[in-house]
Amino acid sequence: MGSIKTFIDWVKGEDAEDDYEEFVPKQAQTPTPETSLGYTADTGARKNNKVVNINATTQLAVVLVKPDRFENAAEIADHLKEKRTVVLNLEQTNKDVARRLVDFLSGVAYANEGKIKKVANSTYIITPYNVDILGDLIDELESNGLYF
């Protein structure tokens, strides 16, 4: 009952009780690298906040595979579905099987919004959507027409 009376008094503009504290916002502070990571600059002690460094919790993996049969395609596709980068070495693989593997894994990469790039003769790198390939070698391959 008391809460209804308090609400009615508030609507009328009357203060039923004066024991409420006035809200005063804290002044905005520009975050520094130390404070945005949750550490104080002078002591290095951890503040009690919920900042999580995403780079520390994300673990990227690169899988090297050298398949000899098309039956290995499902295992490679599972790595790609789990957002792992795959380096596909087809040097020892039969040409017909290698072509089928590249076709199938290109489809898997496309379905997962990833990319497949030829990095050397019979060697491909297949990356998930959140991984980019950078470097001079890619520029050189692109200019030679080996990059697709």
Overview of the structural elements:
By secondary structure, the chain is α+β, with helices and mostly antiparallel strands. It is built from 6 helices and 4 strands, in the order αααβαβαββα. It has helices at residues 2-12, 33-36, 54-57, 73-81, 95-111, 136-143; strands spanning 62-65, 85-89, 115-120, 123-127. It has a 4-stranded mixed beta sheet. β3 (115-120) and β4 form a beta hairpin. α4 packs parallel to α5. The radius of gyration is 29 Å and the shape is elongated. The model has no long low-confidence stretch (mean pLDDT 75).
- N to C succession of SSEs: HHHEHEHEEH
User: Could you give the distance between the termini?
Assistant: 74 Å
The largest pleated sheet is described as: 4 strands, mixed
Provide the β-strand percentage band.
Answer: 5-15%
Report the helical percentage: 25-40%
Q: Rg to the nearest angstrom?
A: 29 Å
Which ranges are low-confidence, i.e. pLDDT below 50, for 5 or more consecutive residues?
A: none
The computed structural class is: alpha+beta
On the 0-100 scale, what is the average pLDDT?
75
Q: Characterize the overall form.
A: elongated
Q: Total helix count?
A: 6
If strands are numbered along the chain, what order do they take across the biggest sheet?
A: 1-2-4-3
Would you report the number of β strands?
Answer: 4
